[in-house]
Amino acid sequence: MCVTFKKICRLAGNAVVDYQMIEDGDRILVGVSGGKDSLVLLKVLKHLADAAPIRFTLFAATFDPGFPGFSADETASFCRSLGIPHHRVCMDIPRLLEEKGLTEKPCMLCSRLRRGNLYSMAEKLRCRKIALGQHLDDIEISFLMSVCRGGGVSTMGPNVPAEKRALRVIRPLALTPEALIARAAAEMELPVRGECIYREQLERGGDRAYFRGVLEEISKKIPDLRSNILRSLSNLQECYLLDRRFIKNADKGNSNETD
Asked: Would you say the pTM of this structure is higher than 0.85?
């Protein structure tokens, strides 16, 4: 096992324990797109399943959007090599985007359909939880997007309820920087596949790509930016925000506040 992968396993193990992601007897559906994040996540969860004192069962699912050149065959083979059953959800996303005139903004429809189909697959397989491959960078970028777009002081939670379903969504890589995941995927020569055909379009004008650039730019001035944001997200000072719901608790706040 490479050193980088060991470090990711340690970070993921900490996240699983800190945010109570996995319980004894859990059946977990892992969303595996074929990208580096989801492949590393699957290997990490397999390692934890083999090493943990509790028992949990893993299943994998790939959403096939029907993009030209997309194939889940190698991803399916990778899952089987780990002894994890693989399932596919197939849709013709290009046709749907054309019909609805959403080719300039494909992510909203695609993500909604992907999420809904994963939820349905989890219920079919009697899984109580869905594990996704979002990492620390994703979480911090989502935080910046939410704050700057007026969506509230919010981000992708590490262990949250699924929308209107008796499921929970967990993100075991929540404490893991993307750079570490990319390094591990390269060192282990994982069969990375499934790149979105809209990638270049999204990198030119997409919100997520823009705020990723913002994060990188600020990091030039503050090298420890990612760890600093992580500490801030883990230390909510609600009495010093502007949400009126917390005003009754204001007198219980930090007594050493200065003007």
From this structure: yes
Per the structure, how many domains does the chain have? 1
Provide the 3-class DSSP secondary structure of residue 230: helix
Is residue 215 in some structural domain?
no
In which domain, by residue range, is 119 found?
Answer: 3-197
Answer whether 177's CB lies under 8 Å from 135's CB.
yes
**72: amino acid identity, one letter:** A
pLDDT tens track for 156-196: 999 999 987 889 999 999 999 999 999 999 999 998 876 66
Question: Other CB atoms closer than 10 Å to residue 149's CB: what's the count?
Answer: 10
Evaluate whether residue 36 is within a structural domain: yes
Judge whether 8 and 40 are in contact, CB under 8 Å: yes
Residue 141 lies in a domain: yes
How many helical (H) and strand (E) elements, i.e. helices and strands, does the chain have?
10, 6
Q: pLDDT per residue over 33-54, tens digit each?
A: 899 999 999 999 999 999 999 9
Contact 66, 91 (CB under 8 A): yes
Q: Which domain CATH number covers 35?
A: 3.40.50.620
Three-class secondary structure of residue 126 per DSSP: coil
What is the spatial distance between Cα 153 and Cα 151, in angstroms, rounded to a whole number?
Answer: 7
Name residues whose C-beta falls within 8 Å of residue 62's C-beta, 6 or more positions apart in sequence: 31, 32, 33, 34, 72, 75, 76, 86, 87, 88, 89, 194
Do residues 164 and 15 lie in contact, with contact meaning Cβ atoms separated by under 8 Å?
no
